[in-house]
């Protein structure tokens, strides 16, 4: 199958593309290779993907409609998986414009192009951050998501809305996936688990917000990849419109929103303890107040995804950290 993936130099896009290439699919990767974080990681990911014969790549911005559309029209993919985005909650406070351009304008281009070539299924990466500071746990797809507390989250919610209206107008089959704190080898150095590891190894102080009293539903990358792959051939269709009650299917469009997470919340201090154990060094800690834009807790309910794909995660956080630390030591040795 021909699959066009945006964000293949990024963490999730890379792992997804690699797995699909291993399965024999033809992949076209598109990424701006932006400098938001250490390019060494993006170069390494590109190097690995470029070894596959069935991998094509083009460097470019998704805001550049002409370049992006030419690439997609030429490749004629059946499936488009959109994972390119400006990620990160904290960076969005200082640099909101980048988020509006990459996440909103860029996703609008993806929707327009996907409709023009009538892809069988467009899958778009969204985020648990759209639940904002909701108190009711676990988060369900039908919960209210009107109160994002960061610019990043607000742009993610906007893309969900844009995608729904596009899907409704033109019957474009769209699945939105709300990811919950994805971590693992070749991961993102702007995320807490990665920053902590770097500092602990260098015996530098780690900065812990809200005294470590925060919870996250940490989801190992392989579980995310297998979840996405199990959905590729399961596009929402017109027959499902209005069929279910109280779920995330649209009642006017071939559109759905699905959580994808590990369904367990872990206390940040516990997570750090496991990191220390795996690294073999006790962390020096500096406790700071809660950061602007951060949420106290996340926890996914993934029943809807399970109904469609029998999705089950395999990696608990202790095993996931072990695998991450093993990779980290090798990569930075
Ligand atoms: N990793 C997580 O925990 C997590 C959690 C929730 C949601 N997400 C979402 O998952 C998707 C993938 O995230 P990731 O963790 O792999 O992030 P990442 O930053 O590693 O990857 C994103 C990639 O998109 C590229 N990119 C950014 N702006 C672009 C643009 N305008 N045009 C073309 N390419 C551009 C970047 O160069 C990068 O390689 C994103 O939509 C992100 O918002 C990730």
Helix/strand layout:
Layout: E1 2-6, H1 11-22, E2 26-31, H2 39-50, E3 55-59, H3 65-75, E4 79-82, H4 89-94, H5 96-116, E5 121-127, H6 151-170, E6 174-179, E7 182-183, H7 192-201, E8 205-209, E9 215-216, E10 219-220, H8 221-231, E11 255-260, E12 266-267, H9 268-279, E13 284-288, H10 303-309, H11 317-331
Parallel strand pairs: 1-2, 1-4, 2-3, 4-5, 5-6, 6-11, 7-10, 8-13
Antiparallel strand pairs: 9-12
This protein binds nicotinamide-adenine-dinucleotide.
Nicotinamide-adenine-dinucleotide is lined by residues 7, 9-13, 31-34, 42, 61-63, 83-87, 102, 106, 125, 127, 179, 181-182, 188.
Q: Biggest sheet: strands, sense, closure?
A: 7 strands, parallel
Alpha plus pi helix count: 11
Q: Which ions and ligands are bound to the chains?
A: nicotinamide-adenine-dinucleotide
CATH architecture type? 3-Layer(aba) Sandwich
How many beta-strand elements?
13
The total number of structural domains is 1
Q: Percent range for helical residues?
A: 40-55%
Instruction: Write the CATH fold name.
Output: Rossmann fold
Strand-residue proportion: 15-25%
Strand order of the largest sheet: 3-2-1-4-5-6-11
Rg calculated over all Cα atoms: 19 Å
| Mean of pLDDT | 95
Order of helices and strands: EHEHEHEHHEHEEHEEEHEEHEHH
CATH superfamily: NAD(P)-binding Rossmann-like Domain
